[in-house]
Amino acid sequence: MYNSIFVSLVVRFWEFINREYKRSFLKKIVDSFSRAWEYLSNGSRFKSIFTSRDYLIEKSFIYKGYASFIDFVNRVLNRVRSYIEKNSDSSIIYKNVRSLFSTKVELFRTFFVFTLSFGLGLAVNNIIRGYYAGRSYLAIAVLVFLSLVGISLKENYKDIFKNSIVWRIIYSIFSIEEEFSHGD
Q1: What pTM was estimated for this model as a whole?
Q2: What ranges in 88-103 are assigned the alpha helix state H?
Q3: Which of 62, 111, 114, 126 could form a disulfide with 131 if both were Cys (CB 3.0 to 4.6 A apart)?
Q4: How many whole angstroms separate alpha carbon 82 and alpha carbon 75?
Q5: Are the C-beta atoms of residues 106 and 158 closer than 8 Å to each other?
Q6: 106-150 per-position pLDDT tens digit
């Protein structure tokens, strides 16, 4: 139904929440509220103005819980961001990290330098520990080779990724597609 794995996981999660809500204690409370409201407002014109086919009480409880959680997360992240922005001018670590990830090219260079260092560190660790043969050296050689190739690409990352089949597969997993009608 959905091309994006992320979107299909979110839809499955939402369906799970709906199934569990139908069996929950909260739904029993909401249903008893609804029945009491129906009994008390039977024949009321005021009720007929504000009632609809949607169950507003049920949706409002779920929405309020979700909205309060998202608001809490946003407040925490905003406080962290404002603290970092306020103290970023005097922070040596923040300046260095910002320079490492300032552009996409710097991001890729940082990643490839990290993988090169990681691969060489694994090789040195294996030599020190006495592991002189095995498949781990093949994996290390591939890791070092790919990171050296990545470092040598310089600024051509965008063209290479745009033409890469693996990148297109990964991109399609996280992209949200528009649904097209097929002449219906």
Answers
A1: 0.43
A2: 92-100
A3: 126
A4: 10
A5: no
A6: 888 889 899 999 989 988 888 888 877 777 788 888 889 988 888
d(CA 3, CA 131): 45
CA distance 80 to 74: 10
Q: How many CA atoms lie within 13 A of 3 on its CB side?
A: 12
Report the Cα 177 to chain-centroid distance in Å.
Answer: 17
Which ranges in the chain belong to alpha helices (H)?
5-22, 25-40, 45-50, 56-87, 92-100, 104-129, 135-152, 157-162, 165-174
Neighbours of 39 (CB within 10 A): 8
48-56 contact pairs (CB < 8 A, 24+): 55/30
| 149-174 residue pLDDT tens | 888 877 777 777 778 888 888 877 77
For the record, the structure tokens of 24 come out as 């929950």
Place of tokens 């990148």: 167
